[in-house]
Structures are given as structure tokens and as C-alpha cells.
Design goal:
The protein has helices spanning 5-12, 86-91, 105-121, 134-145, 160-167, 218-229, 242-255, 292-297, 299-306, 317-322, 340-349, 369-375, 378-383, 413-417; strands spanning 2-3, 20-30, 36-44, 50-54, 66-69, 74-77, 79-84, 124-132, 152-157, 180-188, 234-239, 266-269, 287-290, 326-329, 401-404, 421-426, 429-433, 440-441. The strands form 2 sheets. Strands 1, 2, 3, 4, 5, 6, 15, 16, 17 and 18 form a 10-stranded mixed β-sheet that branches. The protein has an 8-stranded parallel β-sheet with strand order 7-8-9-10-11-12-13-14. It is an alpha/beta fold. The chain starts with a strand and ends with a strand. The longest helix has 17 residues, at 105-121.
Length: 442
């Protein structure tokens, strides 16, 4: 019989101990080579992993504990937001218990609940949490212990002291069925172009006397990277300006001689890259975590800050991808809404919601739809050492997926920005459902 959402919620609140057949869907995912694979059904095992994919004429299992009729809706991988300050996002949704007071543990737990609601409504199943504190981590652990951790959180500590306090001698294991892990540490080298705090090789066009300094000396930067690298923590360095990016690449080239193996050094933001440095991006397995909507929301200030002669390396997504470096896209929430579909639209058009500028700003840096989707799925997973677990609809991976009301590979840019998430599933469990969406049969 058909079950209402209230009945489905009983499934959501308990561990999965049953096979789930999701059928009659217009499924899509990216293959390892970046091409789109289509399918019409999938089987989830009792551990919340994908057991089998079905094409339209494939035989389905005779029995399944639960069946979801997708009613022909599009099914796609859950989206990964590669740069979020999760607890800050949650606190934008709740008033402080006592203005100016330090949040209590219960305040933090409530903020986490609110952040998860917002993210799941928007189809975000995994976040890369930047600047994680010990208090944040304790809240995540409480949620995991109480089985209320619905999203996946891959964390980067606020500093090396927090890194050691949280994880000790190395990155934590994957906890709570791959719901939580501390990968490494965030390091901030400069600020954004918009506030003129990005460290640039040449003066700001609109403030020639201003020279934004690096927040760390080169020695301090290398010491922090070494402190993390010696224990195999991953580093995520925020470097916005071309000077900051160049200094970081110099440091990585030197330290890569000592810290062998696959490190996947992360560069966060990279708003402006010296074209001469592009060829160095893939020398040491670099991943670039960038935010497409920073471009479309700040075009005027970017052009004003840089002037017409230095625009070639600004938000250079296609050039970065062309080097072989991996792209991972995020929102920067709470500074911007965690809206991955709007990010995809920005990446493929380099235009704002008003379809301006005509033809796209620096249009040669537009991405294909496949590349933009990869930056929110497969590329984002790789940049956080999550491939094999998340980012694709594939046998053996966690069953994190969305049902949406239109195909992101075919929708117009304006339609992309208004895609509605009908259902969000994490680990084979329904964790969000819009008012009208497919029903489950038992």
C-alpha cells in the first residue's frame, strides 16, 4: 500500500535494515571519466550502499522490503558543498539564547539541526566544514551518538591546536557510517578581492597606495603546512590573490619533496591566479575549492579592483580544469546561500540571474555542464578524500541521492536556478521530502 510521509518518517528515524528498490526514475550520474551515465532504477542494500543499477529493460528483484516509485522524476547524486562554515550557518537560523553570551551546547545542537534542514532542502548531502572548533566537533559527535546526524560532515580544523585537540595523531576515522571525519586544517593566507584584503602582485587598480599583506610570513606558512603534513593531515589554504596563490605554490613545491604520497593540497578561493602559475597547479596534486557565485555577485567590484589588464586569471575555472587540477565548488555559506544549482548555472554561463553580462563575463572560462556538476560531486569528493564513498551513483558507494523536478543537464540556466528538490536521501534513508513527491510502497 502507499504510505504517507508520516509513515515514511518511521523509516527515516531508524537504521536501515532492509533493501530498498528505487524504480521508475530518470537517473543520471557521472562516470569516473566525467561522462554522464543514465539508468532507471537502483537497489540499496541494508547497509545504505548501492547494490545494483538498472537500465530500463533490466529485470528487477522479485522482492524488496521497500519500493519507491520515482514517477519518472530525475534522480541524481547528492550534492557536496566544498566550503561551508556549518555552525555559523546554523546560527543564522536561530536567535541567540543570550545576546553576546557564549553559545551553550544545547544552542549549538539546535543550530546544527537548523543547518541540516536548510542544506537537505537544497539537496546538499555532504558539507566540507571549514574552521571547525572543538565545540563544533563535540556537537557533531553528539548528533552522531544520538543518530540525528543526517548530512555528512568532512571537517577542517580552525587551527593546528584545534586539529590536534580533535583528532590527535592523525585524521580521524570515518565515523557514524561515513557521516563524520576530520581531514585536516584550514589555513588563511589572505582575504577576498571584494574587501581589498587579497594579496596581489600589483597594486589595486582602484586603490594604488593600498598593499594588502599576507597574513602569514612564508616561514610561518611552511611551518603550519609541515605541522599538518608530518601527521598526514590535509591542508586547506585560503589564498585569494595572485600573490597569495603564488607564495602557496612555492611553498608546496618545496614541501612536496619532504611530504611524499598523495596529499591533495587544497587551495580555497583562488579568486585571481597569475596566468604564469597555471601550469604549476597540477604539479603536486592540487585541488582548487572555488565558489562560482562569488563571481556573479561581485562582478563590478572585481573589475574595479583589478582593472581591465588583469582579468584573465580571475575565477579561471576552465583554465584551472585544463591543467588537470581538480575543481571542487562550494558556497562559502553563511556568506552566501548554499545553492549548488545556482552555482552550476553561474559556472556554465558566467552570468548572474539577470543573464548579464551578455555572453558571459570572460566567457572563455565557462565550464561544460558535466564539469560544473563534477565540481559539486565527483571532484568535490576527490578533493576531500571521499571518492569511493560519495559523489556518484555507483555500486558500493553510499546511497546519497536526490529526486528533482527537472534534468540539470537539459534545463536552461534560469530553470537550473529554480530546480526543486523533491526528496533527499542519505545512506539509503529518506531525510527530506517536499510536500509533493513520489510515494513509497511496502
Amino acid at each position: 500500500m502507499r504510505l504517507a510521509f508520516a509513515a515514511i518518517a518511521l523509516i527515516v528515524g531508524t537504521p536501515v535494515h532492509a533493501d530498498v528498490l528505487v524504480d521508475n526514475v530518470d537517473g543520471l550520474t557521472l562516470e569516473a571519466d566525467g561522462t554522464v551515465q543514465r539508468f532507471s532504477g537502483l537497489l540499496i542494500d541494508n547497509n545504505g550502499r548501492i547494490q545494483q543499477l538498472f537500465l530500463r529493460n533490466d529485470k528487477r528483484p522479485a522482492r524488496a522490503d521497500y519500493r519507491l516509485d520515482g514517477k519518472g522524476h530525475v534522480l541524481m547524486p547528492g550534492l557536496i558543498d566544498s566550503h561551508v562554515e556549518l555552525m555559523k550557518l546554523g546560527f543564522t537560523r536561530i536567535p541567540p539564547a543570550s545576546p553576546g553570551a557564549r553559545p551553550r551546547p544545547e544552542d549549538r545542537d539546535r543550530a546544527l539541526v537548523e543547518a541540516q534542514k536548510l542544506l537537505l532542502e537544497r539537496g546538499i548531502t555532504t558539507v566540507i566544514d571549514m574552521g571547525t572548533t572543538i565545540e563544533d566537533w563535540q556537537s557533531y559527535r553528539r548528533a552522531g551518538d544520538q543518530s540525528t546526524l543526517s548530512i555528512r560532515i568532512i571537517a577542517y580544523a580552525a587551527n593546528t591546536d584545534a586539529m590536534s585537540l580533535i583528532a590527535g595523531p592523525g585524521p580521524t576515522p570515518w565515523l557514524y557510517n561515513d557521516r563524520l571525519r576530520l581531514n585536516g586544517v584550514q589555513i588563511v593566507l589572505d582575504g577576498p578581492l571584494e574587501t581589498r584584503t587579497a594579496a596581489l602582485m600589483a597594486p589595486y587598480a582602484d586603490a594604488p597606495a593600498l598593499k594588502a599583506p599576507l597574513r602569514l610570513t612564508e616561514i610561518q606558512l611552511k611551518n603550519l603546512i609541515s605541522r599538518a603534513g608530518i601527521d598526514h593531515f590535509q591542508i586547506a589554504v585560503e589564498a585569494n590573490g595572485d600573490k597569495a596563490v603564488g607564495v602557496l605554490l612555492d611553498a608546496l613545491s618545496e614541501l612536496a619533496l619532504t611530504y611524499k604520497g598523495e596529499r591533495r593540497w587544497r587551495i580555497e578561493q583562488a579568486q585571481l591566479i597569475d596566468p604564469a602559475d597555471l601550469s604549476r597547479l597540477n604539479q603536486n596534486g592540487v585541488a582548487l575549492s572555488m565558489q562560482p557565485r562569488q563571481l556573479t555577485s561581485g562582478l563590478q567590484s572585481i573589475e574595479t579592483r583589478l582593472g581591465p589588464q588583469r582579468l584573465a586569471g580571475a575565477f579561471a575555472w576552465k583554465s584551472v580544469a585544463g591543467t588537470g587540477a581538480r575543481l571542487a565548488f562550494g558556497s562559502g555559506a553563511p556568506n552566501a546561500a548554499p545553492d549548488a544549482f545556482a552555482g552550476i548555472a553561474a559556472a556554465i554561463t558566467r552570468q548572474g540571474p539577470d543573464a548579464l553580462p551578455f555572453g558571459g563575463w570572460q566567457a572563455q572560462e565557462r565550464l561544460t555542464r558535466e564539469a560544473a556538476l563534477a565540481a559539486y560531486t565527483t571532484g568535490a569528493a576527490w578533493a576531500a578524500f571521499g571518492e569511493g564513498r560519495i559523489g556518484r551513483i555507483a555500486i558500493g558507494q553510499r546511497a546519497d541521492f536526490l529526486l528533482v523536478d527537472r534534468d540539470p543537464m537539459l534545463a536552461s540556466p534560469s530553470e537550473l536556478r529554480s530546480i526543486k528538490v523533491l526528496q533527499t536521501w542519505v545512506g539509503g534513508k529518506l531525510v527530506y521530502q517536499a510536500q509533493e513527491s513520489p510515494a513509497t510502497e511496502r
